[in-house]
Amino acid sequence: MNVLKIAVMAAVFLALPVQADWRNEGSPEEQLANLVKLVPGTSHWMFEIGERYKNLYWAAKLDRWEFAQYQVEEIEKLIKVVQLARPKRAETAQEFVDKGLPAIAEGVASKDWDVFKPAFETLRQACITCHGKNDHSFISLPAAPATAASPSLNLPSP
Ligand code: HEC
Question: pLDDT tens digit string along 101-151?
């Protein structure tokens, strides 16, 4: 590479605009606007809810009732995050909290698979109802998830 080429490349490099890092150098307004844009949407939180839905089913099936209860609590917290993150979902999310969650809380508290199983179906219907009300009726859920997500449930390989 000759000296001229190096000089041209250096000039091009120096002429490139350096992207300012808004996190350090932006105005408070710009920082706030960007942070709002970065708030994860419904699909992000639903992904985790879906994993917890599977864990809930398997925790109950394996008699891990405390773990099952923990999944219900986390699902409730995540639904409240959805309400905050996406206000247009808030009303239907509240219907789910009021009508969908009490049944599963009772099902888990019973520590009895035969009581839990219909409560889990009630929960599934409440999830699906909200998907329908939010124009996502194509997102179905299994009545009996084949696997769990958490290593704590220590399932044998499928
Ligand atoms: C507020 C109503 C509402 C409730 C309640 C709700 N969902 Fe959802 N869910 C949605 C919406 C809306 C989407 C589509 C996401 C989007 O458009 O950003 C979704 C998407 C999903 C997805 C797909 C995520 C992906 O991208 O792979 C899963 C899985 C899911 N929900 C599971 C559940 C489960 C399980 C429950 C019940 C425990 C539940 N949802 C309750 C509204 C809801």
Answer: 999 999 999 999 999 999 999 999 999 999 999 999 999 999 999 999 999
For residue 112, the CA-to-ligand 1 centroid distance in Å is 27
Q: Which of 63, 155, 67 shows the shortest CA–CA distance to 111? A: 63
All structural domains of the chain: 3-37 (no CATH), 42-151 (1.20.120)
Pocket lining for ligand 1, CB < 6 angstroms: 41-43, 46-47, 49-50, 53, 75, 79, 82, 89, 92-93, 96, 123, 127, 130-131, 134, 136, 139, 141
Q: What is the pLDDT of residues 44-97, one digit of tens each?
A: 999 999 999 999 999 999 999 999 999 999 999 999 999 999 999 999 999 999
Distance between CA atoms of residues 92 and 89, nearest Å: 6
Return the DSSP state at 151: G
